[in-house]
Amino acid sequence: MESFYEKMMYLIEIAGVWGPFCFILLHLLRPIFFLPVVFLCMTGGLLFGSFWGAVYSLIGVTLSSLLFYKLRTWMPKPFRKINVLKNKVFGKNHELTVPQIALLRLLPFMHFYLLSLCLYDLATDFKDYARSSVYTNIPLAILYTVSGEWITRLSPSVIALIFLLVIPFLYMLRKKQATIQWQEFFPSRSH
Description:
It contains 11 helices and no strands. It is mainly alpha-helical. The longest helix has 25 residues, at 50-74. The protein is globular and about 65 Å long. The chain starts with a helix and ends in a 6-residue tail after the last helix.
């Protein structure tokens, strides 16, 4: 991973004006290389500075989210495993809100596409999904790009403290109602 990181940084640096395009393309290819979103956002801050790194990361992460939406729409079968994972993690009848998803995206161990699936389930159409996706990606891109070097120096205890501070916000921003299907509340008897 270290050598891949060094090669990637070298290629983007020598790309010149094509560097930002290569960086955004890398965001789209990120799932193929199993690179975490946080890693790429931090790299953007190191390569392009805080402002431009955040802008390029936001563009790349949002395009990745939009590509997920299109793939989910075109090929629903392969995404069933992610749906099963979503039901295991968040519960079958639990629906996250957009602000909750924005906060969860700040946690480095949360699966990016799992949260994208939650946004997909909330959205009424592509435009609604795109707007929500940009909204949830802004804090992610800014926080990890700006604090690229700073976050890598945090101790595990500080990361745990940050996580504990985020949990109350997740509770306060939750959806205050749950929908239970009739069949789940009153299971039918099979004779």
